[in-house]
Amino acid sequence: MMTPTRYVFIVITLIICLHYILTFTHEDYGRATSLNNIKDKWSLGGSRPSNYVPPKGEFLDEDVRPAPARKANATFVILARNGDLTGVIESIQRLEDRFNRHFHYPYVFLNEEPFTQEFKQRTRNMISGTAEYGLIPKHEWEQPPTVDENKAREAREEMIRENVIYGGLYRNMCRFNSGYFYRQELMMKYKYYWRVEPGVKYFCNLDYDPFLLMQDENKVYGFTLSLYEYQRTIPTLWDATKEFIRQNPQYLPRDNAMSFISDDGGKTYNLCHFWSNFEIGDLDFWRGEAYSKYFEHLDAQGGFYYERWGDAPVHSIGAALFARKDQIHYFDDIGYRHEPFQKCPQGDLHTRGKCSCDPNDDFSHVPYSCTYRYERMF
């Protein structure tokens, strides 16, 4: 027969055991649902139980979601060197926080030299999607043998003497972005891209998918900022473009965006361009016959090296000439900064996006901006 003392002892023992079991289960569950492990789980396509209630202080509904059922065939693309790692990490963090943590799109990193293991490990650790790392073929990055190096060197030195901004820099990069990034092996399986630069800022939440907007509305090019190019860097670019137009008028649709880049029907170039360090675009547009032949025509002139033809005016002229104007989209709700300019959404867009930028600091409608030229086309 059990004595009262023994009965009390057994009850107390059971209570203590039950406490430890519950404590262990809670702590083990807490480890399994820490934010890092949750990211691993749901970035692989998992889903939460319908009756799941996150522990207090854990912001799962806002921080991590399963990838949406409908996504575009799209990727972020980042051209960077190993030495750009800090700036790349900053850009990825902001992009993930403001958009991609909910959508889990992949990244393609491109470099003319092999990426280090540190670069790969640290960038993979930052993203909610997958990552691939590509090595650019030398013939697509380096100055082609058809370019007269003596002439090219003299042009660089003259620009440096005249204090032309970036006068001695980035020619290989400009040519690569103008004619080769969209043909890289890792890019060929994608339809859309979002170009990301090291050290840029994204100020606003995006609760919709810009890639699907491009897809569903048949857009081929999207921008946030536009401005005037430095005439000194492209003195003969428009002459080369007019020559191509004369030879290939069939590539220009009737309702194109010529009025964005020319105030006199194409006689002269007004220097307006979309700032291509941010762009969301249709890769098949660049791969298409019209733009491909246009790039080949420009490349044969040598202007990427004898002058300093940038990918921003080249892309802008290509989009303005070979796409319809309604296929070019102004992302006025994407807050973005690439030094020294920024786009800060206004009014309700600023409020809905929970934007952190100062709405008074917006380049879109200052005198040096070309955005008004885009807006008056419609």
TrEMBL record:
InterPro entries in the record: Glyco_trans_15 (IPR002685), Nucleotide-diphossugar_trans (IPR029044)
Signal peptide: none
Keywords attached to this entry: Transferase
Any GO CC annotation of this UniProt entry: Golgi apparatus
One GO process term, biological-process aspect: protein N-linked glycosylation
Active-site annotation: E279 (nucleophile)
Gene3D superfamilies, per database record: Spore Coat Polysaccharide Biosynthesis Protein SpsA, Chain A
GO molecular function, one term: alpha-1,2-mannosyltransferase activity
PANTHER family the UniProt entry points to: ALPHA-1,2 MANNOSYLTRANSFERASE KTR1
Entry similarity comment: Belongs to the glycosyltransferase 15 family.
Protein name (Swiss-Prot/TrEMBL): Glycosyltransferase family 15 protein
Source organism (scientific name): Serendipita vermifera MAFF 305830
